[in-house]
Amino acid sequence: MNILLAVDFSAREWAEWLPALTRELPNDTLVQERSVVAPEDIEVAIVANPAPGALHGLPRLRLVQSLWAGVEKLLADPNVPSHVPLARMVDQAMNDAMAETALWAVLSLHRRTFDYARQQREGRWARHSQPTAGEVSVAVLGLGQMGRTVALRLAANGYRVSGWSAHAASIPGVRTLAGDASLPALLADAQVLVNLLPLTAKTRGLIDARLLALLPRGASLVNVGRGAHVVEADLLAALESGHIGQAVLDVFATEPLPAGHPFWAHPKVTVMPHVAAPTDAASAAKVVAANVAALREGRPLRGLVDRARAY
Ligand code: GLV
């Protein structure tokens, strides 16, 4: 099969991905330059931020495989044909990476290491009371592949974990709630809110002044979903008022975070450059190859996006 690579890779990323994909797809042709193959000979496109028009006019395209877990940009791109199955990246290595990042953030909040780092900069020796993990309640928004893995990891580390999703879910050791009506109860009890929702028309801007006000005073936000879930001005106001104690942010409305953005220097904000769960080339290439094999053999594909649901 001819597999088009419609990706915006840097030289470093090409050096990582091309050998990994070549190793896992030894009998296929990886097309880096669309012009070298007739459009009707391309059956699969592997995409990561494809250039505008990159997927236009491919009459025999049968699968668009994203290297990213979040597909909101692909769904909004008129050049990604809506009749072709779209698969997002579902990779346990990514889920595990996300769980590590979420656990680091929750542990750091619980053990006050952001506060102690601030105090160190000020040369200030002060001890805070230290609750046990079991006394810390964490709410996870979104119980997809990543949200579930995060909730399980936090629960395994002794935290009191609740999870919220649009549709009812069940996770051992985790209190689960579903639907809009249950949000206020979830938030009222959450000392740490971890966002792992998919970005859809329904969840865009969900974390606004109204939602933040439902959290107890001093609660923290960990956003490892998408920047557009958060109304940044509302979060800044909540940080200023002390209602929100700390924000650990991996994603932003505009990325890279613009120079001079108030988050950069805010003492209560931890900024990370969208690295909470980067796609791992070696394991993701196996996921891609498994889907290509399934396509070839007419078996069900993994990670297929439901376009009506938008994730
Ligand atoms: C990263 O944010 C992804 O969607 O994979």
Explained architecture:
The chain is an alpha/beta fold. It folds into two domains: 2-91 and 279-297, Rossmann fold, CATH 3.40.50.720; 95-271, NAD(P)-binding Rossmann-like Domain (Rossmann fold, 3-Layer(aba) Sandwich), CATH 3.40.50. It has helices spanning 11-24, 72-76, 92-110, 113-122, 145-156, 183-188, 209-213, 232-241, 262-265, 281-297; strands spanning 2-7, 29-31, 42-48, 63-66, 86-87, 137-141, 160-165, 175-178, 192-195, 219-223, 244-249, 269-271. The strands form two sheets. Strands 8-7-6-9-10-11-12 form a seven-stranded parallel beta sheet. Strand 4 (63-66), helix 2 (72-76) and strand 5 form a beta-alpha-beta unit. Helix 1 packs across helix 10 (281-297) and helix 3 packs across helix 5. The chain is elongated, with a radius of gyration of 21 Å. The model has no long low-confidence stretch (mean pLDDT 97). Bound molecules: glyoxylic acid. Glyoxylic acid binds at residues 68-70, 89, 279. The site of glyoxylic acid has 5 residues, from loops.
